[in-house]
Amino acid sequence: MSITVFIGLVLAIIVGISLGLIGSGGSILTVPILVYVMDVDPVLATAYSLFIVGVTSLVGGIQNAVQKKVDFKTVLIFGIPSIVAVYLTRAYLVPLIPDVIFTIGNFEFTKSIALMVLFAIVMIAASISMIKPCIDCDKYEETNLKYNYPMILLEGAVVGVLTGLVGAGGGFLIIPALVLLARMPMKLAVGTSLFIIAAKSLIGFTGDLQGGETIDWTLLSTFTGLSTVGIFIGILLTKKIAGNKLKTAFGWFVLVMGIYILVKELFF
User: Fold this and answer.
1) Dihedral angle over CA of 44, 99, 209, 161, nearest 10
2) Is residue 182 packed enough to be buried (19+ CB in 10 Å), middle (13-18) or exposed (0-12)?
3) Taking 70 as the threshold, does the pLDDT of residue 134 lie above it?
4) Do 178 and 156 meet the contact criterion of CB atoms below 8 Å apart?
């Protein structure tokens, strides 16, 4: 085992810890680790990310369900349009993107660069969501859930397309949506988000299995297993670490990473 692969597998545990602690951030870490540390092709890395984050989130979701921190009605309302969108995106939209999108002089803007640039933009948007304090996140605790159905369905579809394109689970979009559109308490939103992420990520991954991609199941299963260990650690740490403070610190880290990827892909 090379040193880069070893480092990548150690970082896999961090992916799980992030999901366990704040219900998001798994894919934000997974794709850069696979691409820049483990030298996986960006297009394939987005597919791997769907599987890794999907399985890890499912384990975390089950753990939260045991603690009665999951609202399954919301999983269905938000999840169905999201699942349909992510499957169609992976199975039909991503294969339609040409390998070379355009050329300027000696610079070729390839499909791989396009996906990483889009991913960097998503990271920067996610970081702003994490850094900015959610004023309403602690507002709804024991109130009855109120559903804004059109907005939840639309948000689900948008997150599904985004997940399909860049392999991001979209927890940073799902959690604020659940808090603001369904008046859901923060802890319930985190558990519910994990189930939504799991369903759409795993079904999105099945869209890749229909293509001609060669999947390295040894790498994928090892990374996923370590990430799953991480989510148990993350869930345990939620009892000792203030989630809001951790989310803000993680947001600054994601912002720096997003800017780095954007600069690296476009200029180097």
Assistant:
1) 80
2) buried
3) no
4) no
**Burial of residue 38 (number of CB atoms within 10 Å: 0-12, 13-18, 19+):** buried
- What percentage of the chain reaches a pLDDT higher than 70? 88
pLDDT at 240: 77
Tell me the helices (H) and strands (E) count for the chain, helix number first. 11, 2
R_g (Cα) of the chain, nearest Å = 18
Residue 260 exposed, middle or buried by CB count within 10 Å (0-12, 13-18, 19+) = middle
Compute the distance between CA of residue 252 and CA of residue 90 in angstroms, rounded to an integer.
30
DSSP 135: T
Mean pLDDT of 155-181: 78
Q: How far apart are CA 205 and CA 169, in angstroms?
A: 12
Cα–Cα distances (Å) from 21 to 132, 195, 230, 232, 246, in that order, read 17, 15, 10, 9, 8
Q: CA 59, CA 218: separation in Å to the nearest integer?
A: 20
CA separation for the pair 179, 226 (Å, rounded): 30
**Calpha distance 244→240 (Å, rounded):** 12
DSSP strand E in the chain: where? 100-104, 107-110
Q: Which residues contact 181 (CB under 8 A, 6 or more apart)?
A: 147, 148, 151, 152, 155
Nearest to 61 by CA among 168, 199, 156: 199
| Mean pLDDT to the nearest integer, 33-49 | 90
